[in-house]
């Protein structure tokens, strides 16, 4: 029987912290831009946006844009605007997600829609999307604009696909991979892909950084899938078991259902499809996931994606930036065991 997935609380955050230290001035400029562009004479907009954007998020996606641009030798300032745009796209999707998911926590705090209401959250999310496009246009790069605007539409498609698949116990692994590529990994890929574009680097480097971001995003989402059934709330910034309570078919559940016996199948039918859950069902679900080895196999796949992400950067000359980005890919899965 596999042990439950748990956060490694004693692991140093060295790869992420190293990138932050290396990118300090750039990220300070990005944060300044984010603060400036959140402002509006309509008071609710900056108040609600600050509640989310200033809630201590990791800023991982904009950090990837900054780090990739530096690895590519970029010396301008457009990477600041693109990184801020990436964060606004991410924040906008979170505001919309919270309305759909009805979660009790976001980044460890009450989500904006439970404070200001669903309508306000949706509209401020739209405002942040608009701000993101303002920033993209200001860079003057039509190619970067195309990459990030396409990512925004793909993310929306992924959200709709996930909603359509809610409580669908027959969802396949292929279908789920398609959803998380769109919903999560696409923005990681776009965040890294725009860097070589504005740096004027060859198409091969653009493809390599897109591959890095895509595989990193897939690994990141799969780890979160496992953590939802075995991590610590403080590490996730959301309630443990949110995916279960919402009836989401994540990879651990898909794999457990695929080999479930009659009793287990009836359980998953009741808690996912019929959405009839009681206080002990989450614990029971975790026991079935352990029995199936679904948490460990999900982590194993995340490790494969993480290794693929690191290998994609081998096209670039050795440098502290390349090493830190490759180390970050390993850290994404090192936070769980």
Number of helices: 17
Unreliable residue runs: 1-13, 232-236
Largest sheet: none
As a whole number of angstroms, the C-alpha radius of gyration is 20 Å
Write the element-wise H/E pattern from the N-terminal end onward: HHHHHHHHHHHHHHHHH
CATH class, named: Mainly Alpha
Dominant shape:
globular
Give the CATH H-level superfamily. Answer: Farnesyl Diphosphate Synthase
Structural class determined from secondary elements: mainly alpha
Q: How would you describe this protein?
A:
The chain has 337 residues and is an all-alpha fold. The protein has one domain (14-309): Farnesyl Diphosphate Synthase (Orthogonal Bundle), CATH 1.10.600.10. Helix content is 72%, strand content 0%. It has helices at 14-22, 24-37, 44-53, 60-71, 78-101, 112-116, 118-138, 142-164, 173-198, 203-227, 233-236, 242-245, 251-258, 262-273, 281-292, 294-312, 320-334. It is globular. The protein starts with 13 loop residues before the first helix and ends with a helix. Residues 1-13 and 232-236 have low confidence and may be disordered.
In short:
By secondary structure, this protein is mainly α. 72% of the residues lie in helices and 0% in strands.
Salient structural properties:
337 residues, mainly alpha, Farnesyl Diphosphate Synthase, 17 helices
List the helices and strands and how they pair.
Blueprint: H1 14-22, H2 24-37, H3 44-53, H4 60-71, H5 78-101, H6 112-116, H7 118-138, H8 142-164, H9 173-198, H10 203-227, H11 233-236, H12 242-245, H13 251-258, H14 262-273, H15 281-292, H16 294-312, H17 320-334
